[in-house]
From TrEMBL:
Protein name (record): GPC5 protein
Record InterPro entries: Glypican, Glypican_CS
Functional note: Cell surface proteoglycan.
Organism of derivation: Nesospiza acunhae
One GO cellular component term: plasma membrane
Gene behind the chain: Gpc5_1
Length: 368
């Protein structure tokens, strides 16, 4: 009653043993593919983690720099500006990680929140009653009167350009993990299971437990079983080329690092622009939002303080170097994995599975 290991000679197998062998080859093949995938997956997961750590380090540095700007140059509004600053950098981080948001919305939302503070603490420091309605009016007015000049738009342009490649790389790495996971759980067809049993276990039915499959026979069986996986070859090569392009884009001119490190400078220029145009802004805001309550004697607007470079270059250089080194190591490794799916049958037939340097092997029917 044997279905797979039929042979003219006497046999020591039963139909139940054949079923056990089919379960065994399915389990062994899944484990073999997992073992092959492990190094590749480990490298990608490790790079995702390292990339995120280096990026977060750059982001924290840029956020601390921006917070220092308010504490040193714009102390009257430093406490209230802390939350919008934190929100800006959180939004940038979420954008990199693939959230449904844009750099433009994050930056403009920040300047919407900043204008009421600049207006009430620097341009008209005598305002005593800044109600929610008045604050909201200032936020909406910001979009029409553009108090920060071209600096807010320039910041959007610079960040959008430099963060795009980082966002795409982050998404591409996650896609790579999904592809590898899907190959691990690809089900073997009934024909494949039978072919693997015939190759690996049918010799056992004749007591030939030390005979292993011939190399050419193993390759034929594995290529047939893994045809659907091998079809990923062209797309995988294209995927590697895309990763290479994105890492080169990120490294070009250190755009990511430069843009993040320059956020504080863009915000400072924007605030200085608003202060210099304070009288015109006050006149326009008065027409749109009305006049808020003022202290007696109306304080003069805050003096404009030139801001020097905020320190902390060492942290920035370390994070930048770490990110660059990781990029180079990663893309070098990934380029070596270009043929991963094309050569998967050869790799599975390597090692202990087949008989090498021997005059006898199993060809599916007999010992040759």
């Amino acid at each position: 009653d044997l279905q797979i290991c039929q042979h003219r000679a006497p046999t020591c197998c039963t139909k139940k043993m054949e079923e056990s062998y089919q379960a065994a080859v399915r389990r062994e093949r899944a484990q073999s593919i997992q073992a092959l995938n492990f190094e590749l997956k480990y490298m990608i997961v490790g790079h995702i983690t390292a990339f995120q750590e280096a990026f977060e380090s750059l982001l924290r540095f840029a956020e601390n720099r921006t917070s220092s700007l308010f504490e040193t140059a714009y102390r009257p509004m430093a406490k209230e500006a802390a939350e919008p600053v934190k929100k800006l950098f959180t939004d940038i981080s979420l954008y990199i990680l693939g959230a449904e948001t844009t750099v433009e919305s994050a930056v403009l939302r920040f300047f919407d929140s900043l204008f009421p503070l600049v207006y009430s603490r620097l341009i008209n420091p005598g305002i005593t009653d800044l109600s929610e309605d008045y604050t909201e009016c200032l936020r909406l007015t910001r979009q029409d009167i553009n108090p920060f000049g071209h600096y807010s738009k320039n910041m959007v342009t610079e960040l959008s350009k430099s963060l795009w490649a980082s966002r795409m790389l982050s998404q591409a790495l996650s896609l790579g993990i999904e592809v590898i996971n899907s190959t691990e759980h690809a089900a073997l067809s009934k024909e494949c299971s039978r072919a693997l049993v015939k190759m690996q276990y049918c010799p056992h039915c004749q007591g030939l437990t030390l005979i292993r499959p011939c190399v050419g026979y193993c390759l034929n069986v594995m290529r047939g079983c893994l045809a659907s996986v091998a079809e990923l070859d062209a797309q995988w090569r294209e995927f590697i080329s895309t990763l290479e392009y994105l890492t080169n884009e990120m490294a070009a001119s250190h755009e990511l690092e430069t843009a993040l490190a320059g956020i504080w400078s863009s915000i400072n220029e924007a605030i200085l622009h608003a202060q210099l145009n304070g009288p015109q802004l006050s006149a326009t805001v008065g027409k749109v939002c009305g006049q808020p309550k003022q202290q007696e004697g109306n304080l003069s607007s805050a003096s404009i303080v030139p801001v020097k470079e905020v320190t902390g270059t060492q942290t920035f250089v370390m994070a930048h170097t770490s990110l660059n080194n990781r990029r180079r190591e990663f893309i070098s490794y990934m380029k070596r994995s270009r043929t991963f799916y094309a050569s998967i049958a050869e790799r599975l037939c390597d090692g202990d599975l087949v008989m090498r340097d021997s005059s006898t092997c199993w060809n599916g029917e007999d010992v040759v």
